[in-house]
Amino acid sequence: MKMILLLSSLILSINTWADKSDDDCQTFLNHINKKEYTKTWDNAATYFQKAISKEQWNKSLEAVHTPLGKVFSRKQISKTPKSKLPGAPDGSYIIYQFQSSFAKKTTAVETITFLESPKNSWKLVGYYIK
């Protein structure tokens, strides 16, 4: 009986962990869609903020997103947990990839990487569009 309860608690914990990262990813994408780039930087990991200033981040996102136009659709194609990434401190990471369509680019892949923070939230550490 104790083993079943322990297993149930572990499954619940894993599901909560996954749901929270999904929520934080969706929040990030909502800010991107609304061109609220400053909010994405404000919610990024500290080492990300030290690597790029808020002004540089805003200019970079504006330069990337303006030519693409409005987002039409996004479909999650992967969600990969990692404990190590090149050039980054060890930690609990999740890498999301989305197949996306924009007004001026019908096919793109957005890659968003988050690091778990001590406060049980997920902080941005990377965002790329191909």
Report a brief summary of the structure.
Helices cover about 45% and strands about 30% of the residues.
Keywords:
four-stranded antiparallel β-sheet; 130 residues; 4 helices; 32% strand; 45% helix; Nuclear Transport Factor 2, Chain: A; alpha+beta
Task: Write structural notes for this entry.
The protein has 130 residues and is α+β, with helices and mostly antiparallel strands. It has one domain: Nuclear Transport Factor 2, Chain: A, CATH 3.10.450.100. The protein has four helices and four strands; from the N terminus they run H-H-H-H-E-E-E-E. The chain has helices at residues 2-33, 37-42, 46-51, 54-68, and strands at residues 71-82, 93-102, 105-116, 122-129. A four-stranded antiparallel β-sheet has the order 1-2-3-4. A hairpin with a 2-residue loop joins strand 2 (93-102) and strand 3 (105-116).
CATH topology: Nuclear Transport Factor 2, Chain: A
Number of helices: 4
Strand order of the largest sheet: 1-2-3-4
Oligomerization: single chain
Question: What proportion strand?
Answer: 25-35%
The CATH fourth-level homologous superfamily: NTF2-like, domain 1
The CATH architecture classification is: Roll
Number of beta strands: 4
Indicate the mean pLDDT.
86
- Approximate shape: globular
> Unreliable runs, pLDDT <50, ≥5 residues?
1-17
In CATH's first tier, which class applies?
Answer: Alpha Beta
How many structurally independent domains?
A: 1
The arrangement of helices and strands along the chain is HHHHEEEE
Describe the biggest sheet?
Answer: 4 strands, antiparallel
Helix content: 40-55%
Secondary-structure-derived class: alpha+beta
Radius of gyration, taken over Cα atoms and rounded to an integer in Å: 16 Å
